[in-house]
Amino acid sequence: MSERASSDSSSNEDFVPQTPDMPVATLRGKRRSNAHEQNGSSPSRIPVASPPPPPPASTTHATKTVTTTARVTSVSKVHNLQGAKGLRSVTMSSIPFPTSSAPAPPVLTATHAGFADIAFRFLNMPRIPKADVTNSSLGLGKRSRPSATRAKTKVDGQKSNNVQATLPLWRTLEAKGKGVIAATLDYELLGTLPYAGTMVTPGMLREGLLRPDTAYHAWVGAKRAIEERRDGVWDLASILKAALQHYLVELGASMLDRVEGPHYTFVDPRLHDNPGAMAKYAMKLVKLFAEKGYGRDRIVVTIPATEAGVQAARTIERKYHVQTNLTLVSGMHHAAVCAEAEATYITFCYQELSDAYGRKLSTGNSFFKAWEAMLTPPKRLAGEAIDATTTFFNLHEIPSRVLVANLQNASDAEELGEIDAVAFTAEQSLRARAPALEVTPRQVSTTATGTSAKQRAQEASYPTVYLKARNGAFLSSIPPDVRSVAKETLDTGLKDMTKQMSKAAAHVLEFIQGEAQLAHIVDDLALQQLYEEDEKEVDRLAYLEAAGHEAEPLCQVRMYDVGFRLRYSTWDTLPPPSRQDLKK
């Protein structure tokens, strides 16, 4: 009995009860280690849950011991918990506890203070009154938020903010007589928003091939071009040209059905240096639109404002009475030449024009170049060129209308003077329909940029002599500083338009090639004649390779064509001779 008692007592001394599994609470603070062992602070006073306590001791506030195990070492340490009622010796879990339940004080820097100041100003910014945010202002039938805005009381001596709620940009443009042209293929927006017209660009033509609802029109255009081929000859170049024209017309007709107003189509930008080819291409488009039931009053043909493009526009306007739109215009002198060609519309591409002024900075020093760009930013120079053009047209009562496309931001349209229309993408259209907060702009002096736009417009003469000099080669007749901007604008814009048009043509050509191969498969004799040279070349290469000689192809073999793979099948022919057979 004594031995059993002694063994029980010894086991009780060595026994350390285990902590049951408890849900781990989220602990605040970044340090997840035994901080009281590292910084010498007071031990943790967070109690640890344990099994039911032993019978109460004689003193209620007796000192209890809790055994904890360090995280790094395996040495157990004992801490005294004063006044810990109902706690017994337990082994704490490996999860460390912080020295305090409060988070550590953050380390603030100047950057943090700046962000905090911005956040404070943003949160205290006056909100738009609920009366201005309505379904009609958004224009998309969305429900307004039910929460009411709260107005803050102005404290005596506090400065009033220069921020106020404004009407949507779309309403502002309409109030100033500026139309909005849809440069998007989103049929939902085309049927919902009050656009003044529609526009198609080479980039949109390629985008339409990637959208299921518009790729159908490319398929229809290619099918019609294949059916209209002459004498059944598969001339891929002529079929591709006709397929792109039919695709343009099919896409434009789908947009005309949804939006009232003119539709701006375009000629192939790869013909920008051939006035006769551009005029022929434009009249083909007009003829195809007439077959769809759309007259010349609804169609505007966009042509690059190169020297050949201006000549083509003058021919189309005077001889065929078709509306034209000369695009990639760079300034007042360039626009005056387009107006003398009797173009109905001229278009400033804002992005390309701003980039051209950015490259125009003459100095090569990077510091002075950045300083000059800060004083006269390229966007401001582009805006002044557009303002000078509209002022010049108003002074001389020029009937040509001014459009602006390729805007960087929708808000730039409000600062572009007396333009007639602006082209918006889908995203820009949605932003223009929503109310915005207007901040009073900082006054900028115009003395650093020389004479104002109005003075330059008054000093210029009209009509000019640019078209009469050197048989229409007007770029060499305009002032040198204007000439450099015009060349940069045309080069940048034409490079991008040509790239997008070539990619769209490659997609359509791939489909036409597949149709041509399937057509030759039906006629076995035609298929044999088409791939006869390819079969001979493959046989020659196989024989030389089997003989151990190096073989170089004399012509490119169309091994991946469907027709060639069906024609040159080897399942019913003998394999080529091996080296051993040749030695025998």
TrEMBL record:
The keyword Mitochondrion does not apply. The keyword Repeat does not apply. GO terms for biological process: carbohydrate metabolic process. Residues 1-64, 134-158 are annotated as: Disordered. It holds the Pfam family TAL_FSA. InterPro entries: Aldolase_TIM, TAL/FSA. Keywords: Schiff base. It comes from the Eukaryota. This is Transaldolase. The lineage of its organism: Eukaryota, Fungi, Dikarya, Basidiomycota, Agaricomycotina.
